[in-house]
Amino acid sequence: MRRETMEEKNTTKRREWVKNAAIIFLTIMLLLTFFSNTIMNYSLPEVATQYVQTGTITAKVRGTGKVEASDPYNVIAKESRVITSVAVKQGDIVEKDQVIYYLEESESDELTKAEQELEDLELNYMKGLFGANVSPEVITKVANGNIDSFSQLQAKVTDMQNRLEAAKKRVEECQKNVDDLTLQSTKDTNNAGVSTKNEELTKDQATTDLTEAQNRFEKDKAATIASLNAQITEVNSQIADLEKLITSTGSTGSTSGSTGTGPGSTTGTTTSDSYYAQKATAVGNLYDKMKLIYDAAKADSGINLSGVTLGAKEVSSVEGIQKTLSDTKVTFNGLQTAINAVEGKADSYTTLFADYNAALLVVQNIEQNASDINKNYGDQQTSLASKKAELANLQKKLAEVQAITASSDGGVQDAQNRLNQANRNILEITTANSQTSVAWQNRLADANAALKNAQAVYDLLKEEQTSLAADINAELDLSKTNKDIQKKKEEIEKLKEKSMGSAVKAPVAGTITTVKYVAGETTQPEDVMAVIQPEGKGFTLSISVTNEQAKKVQIGDMAELQNSWYYDDARVMLSAIKPDPDNPGTNKLLVFDVSGSTIQADQSLSISVGQRSQEYELVVPNSAIREDNDGKFILTVESKSSPLGNRYIATRVGVEVLASDDNNSAISAPLYGWEYVITTSTKPVEAGKQVRLADNS
């Protein structure tokens, strides 16, 4: 018992020891974890945060520019002169005609230049007066100063143009007359040639008739008549043979309404019994072949013969043969279509189809033979008609020969009379044509002469027009040169007056803003000697801003001056917004009207402008806005629970800046409006990294 108790005690002690060791280990681990976490926290970036909140943004645009006179007056040097003394200084208020500079007395370079220019003008004037292209009339007029006015010159030009147009119209009329006469002459000559040719043909025919009459009269009349009678007998025999042949062929005329090449066709076909018999047999055979196909198809359950009908066979008449043939062809086409519509059926009807086509070929051959018979018949008819015409011609010749035999001279005298008349007609026509040709030649010669004269007048007027234009140009050039000489003389007189000593005076009243020269310096022609700001004229100031900044302001906005206490009565107002000439694509130029007693030209002023305010849902401090290659963003703080407490993680949120003022910016971002945004940090902060909140966060 005692032993057991001791063992139990030992066991209990061991358990207590293990328990205590575990407690000590866990305590140490907790302490180490706490201290390590604390140390790590102090190594994290400490950040200051602020709630994202609603607010009002008042957009401001800032810039610095130089004050310029809004409408300055530049005093320009007329010539090179030495400054003896300066009567004013910058900022002085001057009256109109008040002396600004005193100049040294001396002949100026401007005067020398003007005298040289006058000499050149006078030389050019003399060259122009005695130029080869200037008429004496123009020289006299210009020398005497009798220059035509614009209306006088215009009247001369108009008159010359009218005369030229009239001459041109006359040339066109003469040319048309020549063309018309040439055309008519050609027509008359052609007609005369036709008349002469016709008479010559008449003469040739009369000559031929005379020769034939003489030959006929000289011939053996009896032999000629016998020969003609023999020919007539032969032709009559040929006609009889042809008529017999045609009768044996047995052809008739056409029968209206029939088709094909068989009996009753529109072209006329044979009506022999053998043709009818052959065709009736062939058509009957064809019908039987078709009926075999029809019966086979009707017995075949797979073939639909609806719409296909079988008529009766009728070959006892011409009409019956033709109708049976036509019906057979129609029925066969229907059968063929119905059989081909069933897949695999056409092959079993190949032999029947072939028999039908062979029978149809027999029918077509019989019809072709009938066509050949008809052709032979037509040829026979043509030959018969030709022989009858030949017979008629021979009979006519026989009558002529018989008539010649009955006359005294066989028409020889009549033919001679007609030949003599043709010769007289040719002589008359030739004479008339010769006279007509001479008349046309004379008329064409007159017309061409008129055309030549009209063209000469037109060419002369063209030369006069060119000469008139040259005189007018010379007159105008010389007149201008003469006027330039007079002006230059007046200019020289004025320069001579000025060269004796003068002063530069203020052309307007105002404030001297610039004095360029000092005593002893020499002015340069066309150089600015001084700048005057006229009375009642203000100043302007311009600053360049981005296109986005320009959208924040509007014309009429009042700007604020830095150090405004110094410019107590200064007033700066936006008067214009226009493209910046240096950066027209990206920038705008804001132009301000500036006034105030302390404002002077060339001052540099710093201003801010933009008074339009707007309420925004998401507003953050400007320090919270960050930017990288992906654009602008903010870092918010997200809290995450852990066994050792809350951990704070920086999270990137992309934003679009809508507006900004001196302290805050309005943004567009996927936020709820209650997030903490990091404004500052003791170390660089990266998105996704842990941070430590400042005590005053």
Q: Helix share of residues?
A: 40-55%
Q: Which homologous superfamily in CATH is the superfamily of the domain at 61-104 and 509-609?
A: RNA polymerase II/Efflux pump adaptor protein, barrel-sandwich hybrid domain
Number of strands: 24
Briefly note the structural class of the backbone.
alpha+beta
- The low-pLDDT segments are 250-271
Biggest sheet layout: 6 strands, mixed
Strand percent estimate = 15-25%
- The CA-CA distance between the termini, in Å, is 70 Å
**Could you say which overall geometry the principal axes of the C-alpha atoms support?**
flat
Q: Residue-averaged pLDDT, rounded?
A: 79
Radius of gyration: 66 Å
CATH fold label of the domain at 61-104 and 509-609:
OB fold (Dihydrolipoamide Acetyltransferase, E2P)
- Count of separate DSSP helical elements: 10
CATH architecture of the domain at 61-104 and 509-609: Beta Barrel
Descriptive notes:
The chain is of the alpha+beta class and 697 residues long. Among the domains are: 1-43; 46-58 and 614-693, conserved putative lor/sdh protein from methanococcus maripaludis s2 fold, CATH 2.40.420; 61-104 and 509-609, RNA polymerase II/Efflux pump adaptor protein, barrel-sandwich hybrid domain (OB fold (Dihydrolipoamide Acetyltransferase, E2P), Beta Barrel), CATH 2.40.50.100. The protein has helices spanning 2-43, 109-129, 136-144, 150-218, 221-249, 273-299, 318-340, 350-406, 412-498, 547-550; strands at 46-51, 53-58, 61-66, 68-69, 73-76, 83-86, 93-94, 99-103, 503-505, 510-515, 528-534, 539-546, 560-561, 571-579, 587-595, 604-609, 613-621, 626-628, 631-642, 645-654, 656-660, 664-668, 676-681, 690-693. The protein has a six-stranded mixed beta sheet with strand order 18-19-20-24-1-23, with no helix packed on it. The protein has a four-stranded antiparallel beta sheet with strand order 2-17-22-21, with no helix packed on it.
